[in-house]
Write a structure and sequence with these properties.
The complex is a heterodimer of chains A (58) and B (171). Chain A is mainly α. Chain A contains 2 helices and no strands. Chain B is elongated, with a radius of gyration of 25 Å. The termini of chain B are far apart. Classes of the chains: A mainly alpha (58), B alpha+beta (171).
Chain lengths: 58, 171
Amino acid sequence: MKLEYVLYGFGILFCIAGVGYLAAEYVRYLSEAGKIGSLLLTVGLFTFLGKYFERLGW
Amino acid sequence: MKNKALYLYLALACFVGIILIFIFDGYIGLYDTLVMDNGQYPQKVEADQWSPERYGYLANTGVERGGRVDFTYTVENHRFSEYGETVSVTLWHNQDKLSDILTQTVTVKTFDKAEVKWSLDAESLVPPGYPSDINYNVSVVITRGDIERRALLSINPSPFVPKPVPAVPPR
């Protein structure tokens, strides 16, 4: 059971690392306006996700 | 708040917005491509293939002596304002300038494209007396405002034509 959670953890980490790498490659060639827009939306994304989980009782 | 998943939807909206920014930002801009047609196969240099450091090698094509290469340089304007700039094409061999091919002002309306075309005869580029069995390389330099694009034109020796074998005399 614990081994499964470790594997889930590895999978999640690899997913985040892959998405992060792809995002970094995209952001390198974004315009300044695109970068600031993406940054604001990313902040909004994590804020709303945090609020959602907060309301679920996490 | 009645809707429990409202914040989740807002987070999803932010994610979709990021993806839309990536797509929109990638589309907006100025893009230039070059098609080099030597009569056998057209070689296209896409807008993201100009940098040898990023792409791995210099844009290039080859032609036999006596052949001809048709160039089509396209400027696409994916912006909300009109674009105008002077485009000039020069030929270089190593550090020596060989000739000016053209200088032309290009005006591109919003979300439109413009083409500049020219042709080069390979035979006229090779200096007289140059060994016929050695390649001769010419750099085609396209200057558009502050931007400089380079393509390598390799003029290859004419194909080897075997001499006819003399008939063996009957014994």
